[in-house]
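@channel sequence for tomorrow's demo:
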Amino acid sequence: MPNLHPNHRSIVSLDAVSLSRTIQRREVSCVEVLEAYLAQIEQQNPAVNAIVAMPERDTVLALAQERDAQLARKQSMGPLHGFPQAPKDIAPVAGMVTTNGSPIFKGQITQTDSVANARVRAAGAIFIGRTNSPEFGLGAHTYNPVYGITRNAFDPSRCAGGSSGGAGVALALNMLPVADGSDMMGSLRTPAAFNNVFGFRTSPGCVPHGPGEEVFFQQFSVTGPMARNIPDLALLLSVQVGFDARLPLSRRQDHAKLFEQPLERELRGTRIGWLGNLGGHLPMEPELLAVTEQALEHFKTLDCRVESVQPKFDLEQLWNAWLTLRSFTFSGGNAQHYHLASSRALLKPEAVWEIERGLALTGPEVFAAAKVRSAWYQEMQRLFESFDFLVMPATQVFPFAAEQHWPTHISGQPMDTYHRWMQSVIPATMAGLPTLAAPAGFGANGLPVGLQIIGPTQSDMSVLQLGHAYDLASGYSKIRSALLQ
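structure tokens (generated this afternoon):
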């Protein structure tokens, strides 16, 4: 394993806000930053396989030299000027391969950027590779037949979570200063919890998600940031946010300035509702539930009021509505791969299952599921009449064996689908609420645990402010992987 130059170690150890300031002041060159991160990737990535599809070194070095020349002319592209970035291998990046983790797209070069990636590029970032993701983003475990398994930053024998698993691991091991991701069913939240970093599921429309073929219907998947602390998260988010006319559901408010506001706020008397395991509805590893309950003490040190609460709703009906809407959405975008025998043979079983379920649905069934979703939103609104935020565990299990595709049982209870073990992320997704996954401590096995901080509709900044205060009070995010020693 190569040894990092001391200056390289100091560069990759900087938080993203400090790194941006240091680059802008020309206290370190963009070339030095790039070389430091490439050295860190060379040291850490072989054990975890988080970053894939890296361009030739000379290609990215030329971009870093160009960024330095711009600063010498007193020209800055933005807050990410000279930042090495590796966009998730699902959202398109012009000039790079976007495989979606599928052999169907192996080797295909994308011609355009997604809106969010275009903004990150325009803010001065240098794309040094892609972060690994499961096939089509299905399942919260990052493995695929193109690039293989991404492994946990705290224990490479365990899984990294997903679908933004490569991003979470790269952050935890200082291979990236910040990272992007997307979240439909916990894809930002699960890998954040599994790797002791932050992942933020933004409100729909906050960050343009696309463009794509269906700009009106897509309301589940969102694009968002991942980081090692909340100021860094807000830095990337300030670049990603804002209206795009190609995406009519994106929001016109000046979100960039919103997320540049101070993160400090008075929290005395803030009412927090603890959802726990939803009254026993969610099977959960007992130690994980206990660790997350202990983390609630840090909200109390902020003079927040924490009280247990349960929604008045048929949670199995909510789950079934989610199954319908997810399969309907996935099959609509991917049925063409199923109808061609050559590509169907390349789909993993979970993708085939989703497509076949979606194709078998009727219009009334989809509409009935949408009605359940609307009713659930109203129930969450009722809870927010009594509470300012809701909190619950981000996952139901600790990171499991990397070679295992998904947990078949939790505490002896069988999982009836490949994603039932991820059910804890459904309440926020189905209600379209901003949700922060935050570190919540460690189990006796040394593996990380995460909390979800769920805010009311479009309260993104308030969620980050509470998350920032909680982070400073808890200190969990300061605990780093032994692999960095």
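heads up for whoever presents: The chain is about 40% helix and 10% strand.
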